[in-house]
Amino acid sequence: MKEIPNLNYINRLSKGNKVFAKNLVDIIKKELPREVETYQLHLNEGDFDKTAEDVHKINHKIKILGLENGCRMAEEYRIGLLKKSIKLKQDFESILTSMLIFIEKVYV
Amino acid sequence: MNCIVIDDEETSRAIVGHLVENNPNVQLLDSFSCAINAIKYLNEYSIDLVFLDIHMPTFTGFDFIRTVKNAPKIILTTSDRDFALDAFEYDCIIDYFMKPITQERFNKGVEKALSSNKDAAEIVDSTLPDEAIDDLYVNIDRRLVKIDIPSINLIQAKGDYILLKTDSKNYMVHSTLKKIVDKLPQDDFLKVHRSYVINTKKIIDIEDNSVLIGKDVIPVSRSNRAELLRRLNRL
Q1: Which of A31, A60, A65 to mutate to test the interface with B (most CBs of B within 10 A)?
Q2: What is the CATH number of the domain that holds B186?
C-alpha cells in the first residue's frame, strides 16, 4: 500500500502549539522545493556525489512527514547514487511529488 | 546551560529551537546555517553546548570540530548512523541524535550534558593570594580562564548567566552579578542597574539615565545614579 505523508511527528513535537506547527510547515513549504530543485540540478549535471548528498538532506523531511518506507528507499537510492546507479530514481521522485503536493495543500 | 545550533537546514534549526524552548535546562543563544560563522561566534562567546549537524556543504560538522579551539560539548544531529563510531573518537562529543529528534531523546541528551558539566558551573570561590588581585579566574567548560580585572568593561546579567565584556573578548559564565561583585574591587566596579555592573574607570560619558562604556550604552537606575555621580572626580 502506498504511504501517504502525514503530520504525526510535527503534531507530537508541537504538543498543541499551533504557532510552532504552522511555522515549521511554512519552513518546509519554502525549503523542500528548493532542495528538490538542487537535487534535480545536480542529477542533470551527472554529479552523483552531490545528488547523493541532496537525497540525504531531503530524507530528513521524508522522515518528518512520516514516510518510513520512503525513508528506507531514499537511503537505498542514495547508496546507489554513490555507485552511479539511478535505478530507484522514479520511486524516489514519486515520493518527492507526493510530499510536494501534500505540503503545499496542508493546513495547520 | 547555554547552547547554539549549527545546521544548514532551516527546518532542523527550527526543530532544535523548539526542543530547547521546551527544556528548562538549556537556553539557545544563537543559530547558524554555516559552521564557519559559528567558529567566529565561539571566539567571542563562551558556549556550553553545541547542537551540530554533520552534513553541511563546504564545511562539515567534523571540519568544525577539528577547527574550533577548545571545543565546547557537542551533540551531533544527523540522519546518518554511519558516523556514530567516528563521532566518539572526539572527547567533546557527548551524544548523537538521529533526525528527526524527539523531545524525549533531546531531554536525555541535555541531561547527559548537564551531568558532565556539574563541576564546571560557577565562578571559582578562589582564595587568591594578594598579588593576584588583578586576576579573576572563571570556570568555563571545565577550564579555569584567567581574566584581567582592569580589562573588564562591564558585566551584564543574562538569566542564569553573566556576560563579562572585556577590552578584547566577551565571556558567558554561569553565575550571578552578586557573586562576581564580591570578587571585584569595590572602588572600581559599581552596580548601576539590576542587570549591569560597570567598571567606572571605563566610562566615556554620562547622560541622564545612561553611561557609555566602549560601544555599549548602559542604563542607570534612579537609585544608583547618586552613588555613580558621587564617585566621579567632577570639576
Answers
A1: A60
A2: 2.40.50.1020
Q: Residue by residue, what is the 3-state secondary structure of B110-172?
A: HHHHHHCCCCCCCCCCCCCCHHHCCEEEEEECCEEEEEEHHHEEEEEEECCEEEEEECCCEEE
Q: Over the stretch B207-224, which tens digit does the pLDDT of each residue have?
A: 888 999 988 899 999 888
Closest Cβ opposite residue B103 in set A13, A23, A56:
A13
Query: Domain total for chain B?
Result: 2
Q: How much is the ipTM here? A: 0.95
**Which of B115, B140, B171 is a domain's end point?**
B115
pTM greater than 0.80 (yes/no): no
Are A13 and B80 in contact (CB < 8 Å)? no
Kindly state whether residue B38 falls inside one of the protein's structural domains: yes
Contact B100 A63 (CB under 8 A): yes
- CA–CA distance from B201 to each of A58, B111, B152 (Å)? 55, 42, 10
Residues B108 and B135 in one domain: no
From chain B, pick out residues whose CB is under 8 angstroms from the CB of A57: 9, 55
